[in-house]
Design brief:
Blueprint (H helix, E strand, L loop, with lengths): L1 H23 L8 E6 L8 E3 L8 E2 L1 H13 L2 E6 L2 H10 L4 E6 L3 H6 E3 L12 E6 L16 E5 L3 H9 L4 E5 L2 H10 L4 E5 H10 L3 E7 L10 E5 L3 H17 L1 H13 L4 E2 L25
Parallel strand pairs: 1-4, 1-5, 8-9, 8-10
Antiparallel strand pairs: 2-3, 2-13, 5-12, 6-12, 7-10, 7-11
Length: 296
């Protein structure tokens, strides 16, 4: 009889443990927070609406996507703004669950992180252009036109790579963030700047001192969409994210989000904010991850 009681107690404990595991074992679904790193200096993907405060001030296509993913997971979204380079460091150190910030596929990212399937932010990746000061509008239409010119591009970006490949005779001047780059262009630190078409549209809408050069890069199809960056080995999370991205794609919301994001990016309350290099909320001294490459 005593042995039966002991067995019954063990069985009861097993049932309790099993029930607890069923409730909390799947960290990807239901309850808790979804921490997402983003760099709010890249309109229309991620930027700030100065008319709002707190989490609501971060807006753009990537923020809409982050909200969608959090809702599908049943989690509360926490946007963690930081510099673009800090986003992947935050993923590597576990400070955030993922980074959604205009990342294009690259082999080094594939090697060092789990990447989601592609998502499609309109023409923001497929169209890559060069902007100039207004007085030079339309003057430069072919690669030879940029020979000997200084062309700005964000550090380690897709635009920098495109300049190296397609404008071999120009002098590339790297910039830390695009807002600063725009000021440098207008000041004359360089003659032109390579940017994504979506970013160019925002710049030209808010500043009549810049215009399109007349030249557009050829972009390999594999760079014409974006990916979400997650920690290497986070396979369950990656699978869940991919299922959500498929649902978003099938429902046709990407085009609507992109149109809304571009309209908001051109409003008077839109602002691109450059964040410190350190991941917001990250442990001091945290290192890790490959250098980021913003594909703008």
């Amino acid at each position: 009889m005593k042995m039966k009681k002991i067995l019954a107690l063990i069985l009861a404990l097993c049932l309790i443990v099993t029930a607890a595991a069923a409730c909390g074992g799947d960290s990807g679904k239901g309850g808790g927070k979804l921490k997402v790193a983003t760099s709010p200096d890249f309109a229309p993907m991620a930027f700030v609406d100065t008319s709002k405060q707190g989490q609501e001030q971060y807006v753009g296509f990537d923020i809409m996507l982050a909200n969608y993913i959090a809702d599908e997971m049943g989690k509360e979204l926490e946007i963690m703004p930081m510099s673009f380079d800090a986003c992947t460091t935050a993923v590597s150190t576990g400070t955030v669950d993922m980074a959604i910030s205009g990342f294009s596929w690259k082999q080094d990212r594939e090697d060092n992180f789990n990447l989601s399937d592609f998502y499609y932010p309109g023409d923001n990746e497929s169209d890559q252009v060069v902007i100039v000061r207004k007085e030079d509008e339309g003057k430069y239409t072919k690669p030879e036109d940029f020979a000997g010119m200084k062309v700005g591009a964000q550090t380690s970006s897709l635009q920098e790579s495109l300049c190296q490949e397609q404008l071999p005779d120009c002098e590339i001047v790297v910039v830390g963030d695009l807002g600063t780059g725009l000021l440098q262009l207008k000041k004359g630190d360089f003659d032109a700047m390579a940017v994504a078409k979506g970013q160019a549209d925002v710049f030209m809408s808010n500043d009549d001192g810049v215009a399109l050069s007349g030249f557009q890069f050829e972009v390999d199809p594999k760079y014409t969409a974006n990916v979400i960056v997650m920690k290497k080995g986070a396979d369950d999370l990656t699978k869940q994210v991919n299922e959500i991205l498929k649902k978003a794609y099938d429902s046709g919301v990407y085009g609507q989000w992109y149109d809304e994001a571009k309209e908001l990016a051109m409003s008077a309350t839109a602002e691109e904010v450059t964040m410190p290099d350190e991941p917001s909320g990250a442990d001091e001294g945290g290192e890790g991850g490959e250098p980021s490459t913003q594909e703008e």
